[in-house]
Amino acid sequence: MRLQHLLGLLVLINVKVHGQEDNQLPVLQQDKSAVRLKLEHWLKEKVGGLTNEIQETNYDLKSTLENHIKHGRLSIERTTTEALNNLDTRKQLIGTQCYQQSVQKLESAKLSSINEFLNCKNLTDAIHDVNQMIHETVNISTKALHNLEEMLIGLSECIVSDFFDAAQCMTNYIWKVINDVRRSKSEMSTYYELMKQLIVKFKAEINECLYQPSQNLKMQANLIMDSSRKCATKV
């Protein structure tokens, strides 16, 4: 009702200043258009803020997952690099042939560990959960933009109405979009909590997925080092 009150005051001001002659009707029409433009700006600002918030949240969620996966791979890479460095110190002792064979075995063990890590069920489930969450939030954004488009069309249609009818028309639309934005905000608040829980969950799942491949790689590296010494005695 506040909008109707403001529009009513606008009418009274125009009548007082310009009189009630027919040639003043364009002034009222202009005032309605000005109000509509302000409302459109407000609507775009609110919905735009919501969609930007959704995009930033999705980016942060996806980046967090990707960074944890990246760190997992780097952990496996570091284990392999340490083993290769140890092997380098023995290159002269074990000979070129045994050295090259050991390097190939280490590289193969590394790739096997990375593959085991990336195909861990907990990790693939975490990726699926994140993608599903992003899909749901994108739906909220899409719905908000669709509602905004309907609001803008509706406000334009309000302008052709009688001035007080236009006030009621605009009021109806503005309250509808306020409720839509509030509902979307509420949905996003729920998703924010779920995202926080999801981040904690997939951190634990990634660490769990990384544990066994890392242990296997360390064991393989030790076996390869022993094998390189045995190889040297045979050559």
UniProtKB/TrEMBL annotation:
Keywords: Signal
Signal peptide: 1-19
Protein name: Putative secreted protein panstrongylus lignarius
Organism: Rhodnius prolixus (Triatomid bug)
